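So, could you explain this one?
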Amino acid sequence: MKLRRSMALLILTSLALVACGAAETLAPQVALREAAQTTLGQEHAQYTLSLVGSEDDVNALVNGGKALTDDDRKGLELLRTSRLVVSTGAGRFAADLRLGTLDRAFELRGLESKLYVRADVAGMAKLFGAEPGELDDVVTQAREAGFDFVADAVAGRWLWLDLNALAKFGEEFAEKNGLPVPEGITGAEGLKGLEGFTQLRDAIAAAWSENVKVERLSREGAGDHYQLTVPLRQVYQRLAPALSGLPGLPGLPAGPGLPSADLVPDRNVIADVWVADGRLTRAELDLAQFAQKVGAAEGGRVALRIDVADRASDVSAPTGAVEVKLAEILQRFLGAFAGLSGAGISS
């Protein structure tokens, strides 16, 4: 009896150890998946995109480690210190680009069917060494062509576009000229009506569960550090059928237009992710791992970093924005083009 009890205890202990080992293997993947779902489900979020790396390491990656001229050094410093901040929430979004030390070099805001844009044109012209008077020439030429809004843009004022009016113009132009109008990508609904993304989502989930390896490394300032090993060709083969079922979007080939899996490198890509309080806080992709592919010199870590915050800047409509009736401008441009074609000037 004691022998049977001892054997049963030994078996139960062994099973418990095996189960704990399996749970330890699965836990990082589950924790990271749940953190991703929580982060994507946030109503408000802020994403900051930047490049992380020393001057020497960035030079090794993008310049082959060659000796730097003063202009090269300025360019690398601009690359290393620029930031793109994207805020989302409640059907609104905003983007704010800092170029080196030039804050708010470019801004973009989207509210309902209106898109607002602004750029520090004068600041960027100075930053990139434009000749004095070049902007004045641009404004003069634009006014002569009937594009008065260019003067407001150069002056750093906010401009705004009516996306509904632009979508309506696109629909009418397509119908008038016998062109197909893809369903679900016009009007105020935007991309919401596109079909096929459910299949893509399921394919991504399957690739995540079966192809991507997740390893927990350590606890750091940004949170728990996880490392992802992504086999490029395997993941592509998993996603290709779902991608081929998507509608043909601009810049995205559909169906037979997708490249063969043989053209995708059969190699692993490493990515790093940090999690704190049950949500993603940071992600990094080390660009140095691609150095051999681009012929760069051997260097240290140069990472594309995204920091994630569960807050967002207040996205509101700027005051005094100048309306740009892009649909009317396109209509005038296309009318002029049609006139040139009728006169036999176009090829």
In short: The two ends are 98 Å apart (CA to CA). Residues 1-26, 184-195, 248-255, 339-347 have pLDDT under 50 and may be disordered.
